Amino acid sequence: MTIIDAVLNDFFWRALIGGLGVALIAGPLGCFVVWRRMAYFGDTLAHSALLGIALSFLISVPLNLGVIITSVILAGALMLFSRNKTLATDTLLGILAHSALAIGLVALSFMPDVRLDLTGLLFGDLLAVNRNDLLWIYGGAVVIMTLLCVLWRGLLMSTIHEELARVEGVPVERLRLVLMLMFALVIAVAMKMVGVLLITALLIIPAATARRLARTPEQMAAMAVVFGFIAVAGGLSMSWHLDTPAGPSVVVTAFATFLVVYGSAGRFSVAR
Amino acid sequence: MSDALVAIENLTVRFDDRLAVDRVNLSLHRGDIITIIGPNGAGKTTLIKAILGVQAATSGRIMRAKNLVIGYVPQNLSLESTLPLSVKRFMLLSGQPLAECESALARTGVSHLISTSVHHLSGGEQQRLLLARALARKPDLLVLDEPAQGVDINGQATLYDLIRQLRDELNCGIIMISHDLHLVMAATDKVICLNQHVCCSGHPADISHDPAFIETFGQPVAESLAVYHHHHNHSHDLRGNVVGDGHEGCQHDHH
């Protein structure tokens, strides 16, 4: 226990353990974001997180819970709005993303008693991760990994061809809902670490990097996890040695890995 | 009627103010091949989606046989290029054992492609893969949406031949949409000409003389089909068996 305690008492180790936990779930979920072209959707959910934080203070619930609630409401609103096809989806997402962010900022300014590190929320504060955050991250990781394992075939099938999946008896609508709930959960647990503006990067960049090397969907998910680990570990060391902000450093490392893999992949692999 | 795989009564599907399918009646038994033809926007795809159960009916009834297994061959497989997927993996995602998948691929003539990436298949190969995937499920009913899309003209004839053989092997019912009027006319038992409502239906040889058909497709098309039938349709009877190889086997009235 003493070793574990010593490790968890050190802010750097807490940050690393937390970051690896986030990368573990962001890898496979990020693949679905890439496969289903949901990058902008993920961004919109992330932007709404600030509104969720304001809401949490208003009704005094834990921040993570408030964020999950707003994400789910927003996802539901998007599903409803997108049925009415007068506005293109990207327009709709743009409206909701920025409105949610703006409303969140305005609402927070009405709460003078709430002292909040806004920069930390927007860009993340990987190094301020406490034990409670670790609990949320690994609790979320267990839930998401279990759901992904159980639902993998159905999720994959409905991503490949929605109608074919439906004919074969895959509950496509229900799976879409579960996927959105998983996005909401990952945003809620990752928000504090990488910040609402950078979460999508942690979802997309490792998955896109993995695409260059992977031959199967499962390989791509696993490689995305590994590239996520590299980004977190690299970003944290960069932050430690160069005194750069942790969240952006993680994203910069992820981007550098992406460039290296795409620059050199031609020599040792064929993209398929 | 009770042994029909699918029976449709007065099916109507309406999108907002647009009528897509108007009071269609249809029943399909084992061994039947029904082809739906019709101009663009005639509601063909909507009709088969209703049969598949992925499109809700506005009114009317669709009855499906108990435990009906449907094999669906969609128009194409527009796979996102970011999703790496081999033919083998795609087949296994059907949930069928590998042996079933392999023999289905062999049946449609693409077993050599098993380790190829789905992204690298040609249009014809992709259609055969989709057909194999439907076969692996051992369907009672095979539903095909323009199966010969993106297939060259020789390939089209072989593909329709294959579909007819599969009907005999599996003893399943087949319903398909097609624009390849000439090829379809030779391969099918019954044609339904759809233009929201069923404008005419019947055996291919008869339908080309139907005034409603001529009105929908125009005189030249109808005439070219009638001529075509004179030469070729008689080589198969209603079950698809060959009944003769020359003109002396012809059972139809000539005009």
UniProtKB/TrEMBL annotation, chain A:
Q: Where in the cell is it found?
A: Cell inner membrane; Cell membrane
- GO CC annotations? ATP-binding cassette (ABC) transporter complex
Q: Per its UniProt record, what CDD domains does this chain match?
A: TM_ABC_iron-siderophores_like
Q: Could you tell me which InterPro entries the record lists for this protein?
A: ABC_BtuC-like, ABC_TroCD
SUPFAM superfamilies in alphabetical order: ABC transporter involved in vitamin B12 uptake, BtuC
Q: Name one GO biological process term.
A: zinc ion transport
- Which UniProt keywords are present, listed alphabetically? Cell inner membrane, Cell membrane, Ion transport, Membrane, Transmembrane, Transmembrane helix, Transport, Zinc, Zinc transport
Point out the gene that encodes the protein.
Answer: znuB
What's its membrane topology? Multi-pass membrane protein
Quote any Pfam family the record assigns: ABC-3
Q: Does the keyword Acetylation apply?
A: no
Q: Which domain of life is it from?
A: Bacteria
Name of the molecule in the record? High-affinity zinc uptake system membrane protein ZnuB
Instruction: Say which family it is in.
Output: Belongs to the ABC-3 integral membrane protein family.
- Give the transmembrane ranges: 12-35, 47-80, 92-114, 135-155, 175-208, 220-240, 246-265
Relate the protein's function as given in its record. Involved in the high-affinity zinc uptake transport system.
Automatic annotation (TrEMBL), chain B:
Statement: the UniProt record of this protein carries the keyword Transport: yes
PROSITE patterns noted in UniProt: ABC_TRANSPORTER_1, ABC_TRANSPORTER_2
List the Gene Ontology MF annotations in alphabetical order. ATP binding; ATP hydrolysis activity
**Classification via SMART domains:** AAA
Q: What Gene Ontology terms for biological process does this UniProt record contain?
A: response to zinc ion; zinc ion transport
Question: Keywords, A to Z?
Answer: ATP-binding, Cell membrane, Ion transport, Membrane, Nucleotide-binding, Translocase, Transport, Zinc, Zinc transport
Pfam families recorded: ABC_tran
User: Is Cell membrane among the key words of this record?
Assistant: yes
**Domain ABC transporter span(s) in chain numbering:** 6-221
Q: Which PANTHER family does the entry mention?
A: METAL TRANSPORT SYSTEM ATP-BINDING PROTEIN TM_0124-RELATED, ZINC IMPORT ATP-BINDING PROTEIN ZNUC
This protein is called ABC transporter domain-containing protein
Source species of the chain: marine sediment metagenome
